[in-house]
Design a protein that fits this description.
Enolase-like, domain 1; alpha+beta
Length: about 80
């Protein structure tokens, strides 16, 4: 079985889905974490990230997918 190229994990609150933490592993992780750091520091929730355009194909797509999962509407899973 093929291993994924990387992954994004969002840590959100149950009540408001506020992003309080995140993990990124894989290619470009050091660049991708900046968006999630901004989300935490700005008090964004998972829906804010999910509704932000993440072009295809780009390394940032897993961030949107993780946010989609957090709000219960996964696009590709």
């Amino acid at each position: 079985m093929d291993q994924p190229d990387g992954f994004v994990r969002l840590v959100t609150t149950k009540d408001t889905n506020a992003v309080v933490g995140a993990q990124v592993v894989g290619p470009g992780a050091s660049d991708l974490i900046a968006e999630l750091s901004l989300a935490v520091n700005s008090g964004m929730n998972a829906e804010d990230i999910a509704l932000t355009i993440h072009p295809h194909p780009t390394l940032s797509e897993p961030i949107q997918e993780a946010a989609d999962v957090a709000i219960g509407f996964p696009t590709h899973i």
